[in-house]
Amino acid sequence: MPKMRAAIFVEPGRIVLDEKPIPNIGPLDALVRISTTTICGTDIHILKGEYPVAPGLTIGHEPVGIIEKLGSAVQGYREGQRVIAGAITPSGYSEACLCGCHSQDGAGTKHGWKAMGGWKFGNTIDGCQAEYLRVPDAMANLAPVPDGLTDEQVLMCPDILSTGFSGAESGRIRIGDTVAVFAQGPIGLCATAGAKLMGATTIIAVESLPERIDMSRRMGADHVIDFTKADPVEEIRRLTDGRGVDVSIEALGRQQTFEAALRVLRPGGTLSSLGVYSGDLRIPLDGFLAGLGDYTIRTTLCPGGKERMRRLISAIASGRVDTRPLVTHRFKLDQIEEAYDLFSHQRDGVLKVAIAP
Amino acid sequence: MPKMRAAIFVEPGRIVLDEKPIPNIGPLDALVRISTTTICGTDIHILKGEYPVAPGLTIGHEPVGIIEKLGSAVQGYREGQRVIAGAITPSGYSEACLCGCHSQDGAGTKHGWKAMGGWKFGNTIDGCQAEYLRVPDAMANLAPVPDGLTDEQVLMCPDILSTGFSGAESGRIRIGDTVAVFAQGPIGLCATAGAKLMGATTIIAVESLPERIDMSRRMGADHVIDFTKADPVEEIRRLTDGRGVDVSIEALGRQQTFEAALRVLRPGGTLSSLGVYSGDLRIPLDGFLAGLGDYTIRTTLCPGGKERMRRLISAIASGRVDTRPLVTHRFKLDQIEEAYDLFSHQRDGVLKVAIAP
Amino acid sequence: MPKMRAAIFVEPGRIVLDEKPIPNIGPLDALVRISTTTICGTDIHILKGEYPVAPGLTIGHEPVGIIEKLGSAVQGYREGQRVIAGAITPSGYSEACLCGCHSQDGAGTKHGWKAMGGWKFGNTIDGCQAEYLRVPDAMANLAPVPDGLTDEQVLMCPDILSTGFSGAESGRIRIGDTVAVFAQGPIGLCATAGAKLMGATTIIAVESLPERIDMSRRMGADHVIDFTKADPVEEIRRLTDGRGVDVSIEALGRQQTFEAALRVLRPGGTLSSLGVYSGDLRIPLDGFLAGLGDYTIRTTLCPGGKERMRRLISAIASGRVDTRPLVTHRFKLDQIEEAYDLFSHQRDGVLKVAIAP
Amino acid sequence: MPKMRAAIFVEPGRIVLDEKPIPNIGPLDALVRISTTTICGTDIHILKGEYPVAPGLTIGHEPVGIIEKLGSAVQGYREGQRVIAGAITPSGYSEACLCGCHSQDGAGTKHGWKAMGGWKFGNTIDGCQAEYLRVPDAMANLAPVPDGLTDEQVLMCPDILSTGFSGAESGRIRIGDTVAVFAQGPIGLCATAGAKLMGATTIIAVESLPERIDMSRRMGADHVIDFTKADPVEEIRRLTDGRGVDVSIEALGRQQTFEAALRVLRPGGTLSSLGVYSGDLRIPLDGFLAGLGDYTIRTTLCPGGKERMRRLISAIASGRVDTRPLVTHRFKLDQIEEAYDLFSHQRDGVLKVAIAP
């Protein structure tokens, strides 16, 4: 039974590189040899034990690689093809998928929809911080990468770009909208890029780290508010002449940003929430107009599936958005523990790391 | 200066019937002689001082009446016509109106949209618990009542029916949806009727008062859960075979019902909130899947305007919905203090009262 | 190799009952023993040679039956379960499916989306007017039938009810809409029922056959115009007080009805087209306001997939709609040539036939 | 009675500059002193007698100017303010407006919605190719122009930019869409800009004039097909690898472009039509998949109203789009007949003219 190296969750505080068998595949699966992957903020939650996964699980949900082997029932691909798969891998055939809610894939369970059922890699099945990855429901999930694009150019598509764009999409941004984006980490930066791509004509980002403030402007922010220097709510009211924003995007997952995102919203506006929260969340009633403000609050889990990946790759290939500047550091798979250390402590201005086996 | 009788807010705890001048009208206004009106739960909030209005204000926002006089610039109506106007009276020409958010009408203010700007009657201008009412922006707000319909048949259109239906509409109910409606007061009952009218095929209502339970079935509920006898969350899970509901409608404005409405929702579902809350509102993270459940929370303020009223009248005229059973008690305007007393204490199985000057 | 009886297309004008082998199934398929099926207007187009299919093909796309055998990769079902499958059987994993356009399933073809790729039964693969049926992508398509419902109660779900309802859904009918439905054959009747189920408060049907006029009222029409006695366009203008309808549904597939459906539409309205047209279709510019009327014309192919079927079954089970009266005649599979004869000549007031092997 | 100069329609073939009285205004109107205006393709239809208007009418519907006087009931503006108004001037209070269909404003007529009722300037009331303009329903229509922007920068907002963008908006373009735009006149160019602004990642324009081909690339086209050198349908199939486009925009108003726009569409796609057609329009059934392709055809009349103008001005002010290059020629009002001559014959590479009184 051939072995491979993989980043494995052992216990809270410990993700280690170890050997485990190369995965077997079933009729609907594909085996992908990973050429590039990365670490996500969610992986840090797992590392810290804030999000529980089974000990022994391979971590990682952002794969770029080469098809090594196809399941017996898989058609439409060939071995040797370079592909990505989304962090979320919908089956396509669950009730949730069939009514358009692919991220909440429940895959044939009797009792319907399993929350986050679409997020499998590094959550309920082995992930991609490894030499090889089993991709379930391959026909719904493998998206070919055009020759002209490097691995790093498409590395953000599986999660960061898909999630960030969905923040803009779930906000239903329209041409001429004023949009606020709270936090400019990798996902917030992609939300900013998405807001611009959808036609927002005033984008106000909120961030304090200098390198992220710079990157924010580069991704499309018209104004960046350093929240250590000014109150974002007051500043946004001023910038919008008292009007508020049409859409605000929360990209951090904290009470404070959620609350501010609500307070800056014009009546009838939408709060598009991307954050993963811990503890309860409070809705301040003044910011909510006691329930009378015609507000919408919408949360979105990273959209996946091959068609979503195709569209994101197309955004990259057309030059509409360029996520290469987000890759600030590069590691070999052998150095992944070092990469986790850097990334979890947000040292050295890190935004995203690229990891190549 | 001719006088009329009107129900006037004096101070918290006191709404009294008194005399005040018949309103003057401007070029865009109409003067309506009230033939029937009613008391709303919101009026009780005003009575109790929970929602502040100016002392001396005439209360009431649900008018049925006869056009007494038209402003000089008003076209398309004639004096003597029987009309209703919505509780919310959009101008039609504000930025908010022009982008479809009529309830949040800001009517030309420099600093944009004033929250709830559309709610004027008995809030920012004199209301309709009186012999006469000034209707602003008459051309946007007066809806003729067909001869075949009585005052009481259309009495719920200005607020209760419009709000209740909007609970279903904002939930974007589709054919085949399973819907839960929390609380079966007048608005919750109309939300139930709206859910049925939009094609929900399983409607689960939550209520404890026997007469409201009966009325709930009459308005379209397939199941009614008495929350004093069973836990609604558990019961709804059981009724939906673990699946949860597609849409839940909150029609009370309490932490407990809001929370339950969220917990019974399937991933990807919508919580449509009609309640007016006090104090902060907590989002329980287990019910919210920490922000990863693709949930939508949408609040809606009663839609108004003459086209909305026309559509609601059409729903009544076609027999699709009948709100007459909601009128459980009748009073003369002279007896309005007695009516407030009955209604505010929810005595004698009262649902809605009809008040005729 | 065990044999079964099946209705086979031989050549234009000839569909015959003959023997052919019971289908083999692959890992994703299911074999269903048909208990009840029916004949569709589309089958008549095939019979007449107006819609070409391969000689030797088994016809029929409306199956009710019992799972006889499941493919090796199929989970979530058990043999012996009573099920239906939609006329359209999306894979769930094609690009088309993944962006919500399940009917236009292209199933992994390199060159993307094949028109009507979702319609397979009796079109590109063997259909269900037979003793046994192979259902592809079973996990996306098999919908269990609750014990309380008879075969005939769910017999319209696979096509007629799904198509008819989609006429209303694609029209985006809202509470209070006025809707016209042109032609009250089985699909038009289900469109009428769908319009009512979605909250249309004035439904005007156009039809001339007495039994269909009666059935139309039963399914929800408020007015039925006999086009042999009055001009529907004039009559609808009169009934709507010159206003026109919000949504018109074309359920026949003729130039004349398409044109009338456009002419009766208010500016900004939607023509929802269900018809299958032959020859070119002309858009009359007066009815189209030369392109300036903010009109939408939308065509819809019968939505399929197990989640759609679940919802339709729920509409039946809840009593919201009852399609049993549409089954006017019953035959054994042995008599299917006779059934084709009756149905293709629309003799004896036939609406739909039930065929039981 | 003070006089002004105005471009007046006399009879087919003759628009002349003549004197007429400066308009009187009513309580809801504003009088605007025109500082810059332009000529539209629609004006040429009027000139040629293809679109009938009353002799004596002042032509023009694209005004930039200064508020000279406000009606007695108009609030929220001051005399001397620089403003624009849309080509379409909704009242805000008609049934059509109140249900979001502002362009089809019917303004209180008993018999409902008058087609194109929102287009008043140079159609049903005097237009803006004059020294002064009466703007009806001023509070719904006047949009202030920020000091930093020149007249020419906002000159395209009233019609060309609003119409062009609406082509993209009515196509419901999403991030990653492939879009074809047929014809790159001023409106087609703005549709191209709108498609880019909404996130289309592959934009294919069809045009033959060299200067328009250049401008098309500048506005966002990734590919431009010269239809005199290649068949657009074949070429688009090739460019999309057989897949077709998600959205096609027709910006000419001819059978040939309409037909091609339909043929290049993927099943499930949307044809967004901006053209004004003459004669009947044929839908080719092969391009329409006989009604089974899940297609949407949507036509859009230029959206107007002050909120729309505010959003377009914001798109200009933010630098997201720059329409200055479209102004290729400049004239004084005295030279307007010369301007008509140049523009109607499309001489000298003209795209749009600016006319300053």
TrEMBL record, chains A, B, C, D:
CDD domains, per the entry: NADP_ADH
Domain Enoyl reductase (ER): from-to ranges: 13-351
Top-level taxonomic group: Bacteria
Keyword Secreted: no
Cofactor needs: Zn(2+)
A single GO molecular function term of this UniProt record: oxidoreductase activity, acting on the CH-OH group of donors, NAD or NADP as acceptor
Keywords of the record: Metal-binding, Oxidoreductase, Zinc
PANTHER family noted in UniProt: NADP-DEPENDENT ISOPROPANOL DEHYDROGENASE, ZINC-TYPE ALCOHOL DEHYDROGENASE-LIKE
Homology family: Belongs to the zinc-containing alcohol dehydrogenase family.
Official protein name in the record: Theronine dehydrogenase-like Zn-dependent dehydrogenase
Organism, as annotated: Microvirga lotononidis
